[in-house]
Amino acid sequence: MTIEIIIQAIISGLLMGFIYALIAAGLSLIFGLMGIVNFAHGEHLMLSMFSSFWLWTLLGLDPIISIPITMLILAISGILTHYLLIRYILKAKMIVQICATFGLSVFLRSLAQFLWTPDFRNVGNPLLEGRLEIAGIFIGQPQFYASLVCLLSFLLLYLFVNKSETGLALQATAQDRKAAETLGINSNKMFALGWALGLSCVSIAGTMMSNFFFIFPDVGVHFALFAFVAVALGGFGSIIGCLIAGIIIGLVESLGGLLIDPSYKLLYVFLIYLIVVIYRPQGLFGR
Amino acid sequence: MNNNLQKAKLEPVWHTNKFIFALIFFLVTLFFFFPFINPSNFQLHLMIMIFMYAVMAQSWNVIAGFSGQISLGHVIFFGIGGYTSSFFYVEYGITPWIGIFIGILFSSLVAIAIGIPMLRLTGHYFAIATLLIGFSFQIIFQRWDLIGAASGLWIPLNWDNPWLTLQFHESKIPYYYIFLIFFLLSYFSIWIIYRSKIGFKLRAIRDDPQAASSLGIPVAKYKIIAFVISAIIMSPMGSLFAQYILVIEPERMFDIEISIIVLLIAVMGGVGNVWGPLIGTIILIPLSEYTRIFFGGTGGSVDLIIYGILIMLICIFRPSGLISFFPKKILERKKFL
Amino acid sequence: MTVVLEVENLSKSFGGIKANNNISFRASSGEIIGIIGPNGAGKSTLFDLITGYTKPDSGGVKFNGKSILNLRPDLISSLGIGRTFQKLKPFLDQTLLENVIIGALATGINLNQARDKALEMIDFVDLIDKRHYFAKELSTGQRKRLELARAMATEPKLLMMDEVTGGVDQKTVPGLVELIKKLNKLGVTILTIEHNMRVIMDISHKILALDQGKKIIFDKPKNVQLNEKVIDAYLGVVNATTS
Ligand SMILES: Nc1ncnc2c1ncn2[C@@H]1O[C@H](COP(=O)(O)OP(=O)(O)OP(=O)(O)O)[C@@H](O)[C@H]1O
Ligand SMILES: [Mg+2]
């Protein structure tokens, strides 16, 4: 095994890590805001990949161009999710909350199977294709740009949440719903905004990934699992924790696959989750 | 001396509603006579699936309803049960009847091994951990050569000794009776446990672990007990299902969908009540079997679309499950059986 | 009189806050010990340390001569220490009777015996008519009685009560006081945290006064009443707020 192979693995791990981080950030944002884990997160990712696929197939829009449209589609479905489902279960027992988003995930996944069959599809001839070569290291162009876009979006999200007035209102709602309401913040709107934002993050990641991933109804499952792991590692609700956790997961996946056995990639990531939550239940960066 | 107190002491701890008892007796009798009315193979299959899922949803209910934890990986006990009995039959010719009990033993050991580190987890952390463990089992079994890896185990067919080898090729009726008996046994045991001292202690832990420990209840021990009880009734379903289909593979025996369906059934019927899972099963399983027939192979997912919608509706409108539709008078614990 | 509980140099910090700083005292069999101190003085923390819900940084706790330091709460309970919680912890989804039955089961009796015992305790706290009410349907005062009955059903030798008269309808206070006295007459040693000075002076044989995690005084009520530090730290505040 040469040093190049290891560097190669580290780089591809990092690249995937940024994508995982953005997906996890969406999940974390929603959790931090209203204490609800979106178990349909993977299906929302799947929806965004299918949106980008159909925009390409039917209208000939390349994924990189259709990002704003898929964002809009997912943002709207986020708002609908809030108003049609989440709004009613905010005060329910946790078991009901888990079941509600779980039910949504079952619904979306089977609907996708029904409408689009379980077949694997892909976006042929996208604008981003081929590989970059830097000092003997090969990087797939779609992967490279996907992770670049995800990283940028992540930073934008971070700035938005921490610097903009709306972002601060979001944080205030997250900290204390009642107090925020006395300040004139409409928490219901904030929650809807949280869903829109959270799913927009997912849509960016999904659209960029549709360049180099097969698209099928179950595609979101593993990404959602990684997102759960990332959010737990980073400490539930911490957005910056997601970035570091995403990178850790990407590296563990690619290096574990390279150094031990690639067929157990998922297991390494799961193992990290179990070890971390059992020995440090607040996550790596949680208080 | 004190009238009210004396009167109260005459009330039994658990009231027994004669009408419901009679109803149950009647239904059980019906179940036993059902095969005599010449049901079609499909009807028998439907009943078998109802018995099986009713038990599996009950197993899930034990964890959620007794210790308040949400398991998203419950299929592992099903898979372990199925693989254990099949493996011992394929490899050593040990009858599945014994295999079922070896499966129960293994499932219980796994429940303890998983349960102990998981004691520290609650809420979402627990749910996600079980989800990941469910997937991990599938991944491991897919690659475990001893038990056939991804291609699974093929149970050698046998025509000579159907009751010993627990395979029936002519008719589904023996399967029907076997599943029925396991169903009755499981529900009866859970019903007994529910009313026992253990049941009280487990419910205390579910409602408030700290208060429970202030009353001398060792929380960790009882959480593990709940986990083991759950595994014990789940595992035989895997073994019996393996005998029913005779070819098992990781995708089927560790299918995440099974974990999901048992959860949906239990929540739909009502968590924390012995009868909730049964009600959920009676509604959801026929629904899924009939939609499967109606839409054929291509519409294999229609049942899940409907499940998904139903469960969301339940969460919004009836968070305590369909059982809450029953009149309050019957539901009030002192009158409900 | 035999010493039942012996607390020695118990200390606990949360981050920078010394919630309990070197606290020592003894409770003898049959005593009622009142614990007072302003908000945040460390009273509830002391309870949590004794009953095993929080691990102390240093110090020791002996019950009937044996160390119970670092034992699990359920083991401490089964040795004979019962407690209630300031932030009430009834089993909300269960009836009053079921709540108390669970307590009674701690003594190892069967269900029917536990039901009888539970009913007696419920009668003792005067809630027999409400036995089939779910805990979530009871008022705060009733829930406090529930916790009391539930803790008593475990037949503790030492009962620790965290603000049983706090936050309840003032009319019910005399009833609760009578209850505590009745319990004590049955031979139960009692530690009770109280903000109501009249109650504490009335029922306690001894008073432990805490302030900012430290013991100020541990003495007979009349001596405590006269103690300057107590007046500064606590009674002054009470007088100021009530006048
Ligand atoms: N788990 C904890 N983590 C951090 N700080 C704590 C914790 N528990 C208690 N404290 C702090 O320790 C101090 C003592 O708290 P404690 O609850 O013992 O006071 P108390 O005397 O019971 O007050 P009150 O009359 O309000 O009940 C307080 O400053 C409190 O904030
Ligand atoms: Mg206190």
Please name the defining characteristics of this protein:
heterotrimer; A: 287 residues; mainly alpha; two-stranded antiparallel ribbon; B: 337 residues; ABC transporter involved in vitamin B12 uptake, BtuC; two-stranded antiparallel sheet; 16 helices; 72% helix; binds adenosine-5'-triphosphate; binds magnesium ion
Describe the structure.
The complex is a heterotrimer of chains A (287), B (337) and C (243). By secondary structure, chain A is mostly helical. Chain A has one domain (20-109, 146-279). Helix content of chain A is 75%, strand content 3%. Chain A contains 11 helices and 2 strands, in the order ααααββααααααα. In chain A, helix 2 (41-59) runs parallel beside helix 4 (94-116), helix 9 (220-234) runs parallel beside helix 11 (265-279) and helix 10 crosses helix 11 (265-279). The longest helix of chain A has 32 residues, at 3-34. Chain A is globular and about 60 Å long. Chain B is mostly helical and 337 residues long. Chain B has one domain: ABC transporter involved in vitamin B12 uptake, BtuC (Orthogonal Bundle). Chain B has 16 helices and 2 strands. Chain B has helices at 3-10, 18-33, 41-67, 75-92, 96-118, 123-142, 162-165, 173-195, 197-207, 209-214, 219-245, 250-253, 256-269, 276-295, 302-317, 328-331; strands at 153-154, 247-248. The longest helix of chain B has 27 residues, at 41-67. Chain B is globular, with a radius of gyration of 21 Å. Chain C has 243 residues and is of the alpha/beta class. Chain C folds into 2 domains: 3-80 and 156-242, Rossmann fold (3-Layer(aba) Sandwich), CATH 3.40.50; 90-155. Helix content of chain C is 38%, strand content 26%. Chain C has 9 helices and 10 strands. Chain C has helices at residues 43-50, 73-79, 96-104, 111-124, 140-153, 173-185, 197-203, 221-226, 228-242, and strands at residues 3-14, 17-28, 32-36, 58-63, 66-67, 81-83, 158-162, 189-193, 206-211, 214-219. Chain C has a 6-stranded mixed sheet, with helices on both faces. In chain C, a hairpin with a 2-residue loop joins strand 1 (3-14) and strand 2. Chain C is globular and about 50 Å long. Mean pLDDT of chain C is 87; it is low at 239-243. Classes of the chains: A mainly alpha (287), B mainly alpha (337), C alpha/beta (243). The interface between A and B is large, with 42 and 46 residues. The complex binds adenosine-5'-triphosphate and magnesium ion (MG). Adenosine-5'-triphosphate (ATP) is lined by residues 14, 17, 19, 37, 39-45, 86 of chain C. Magnesium ion binds next to helix 1 of chain C.
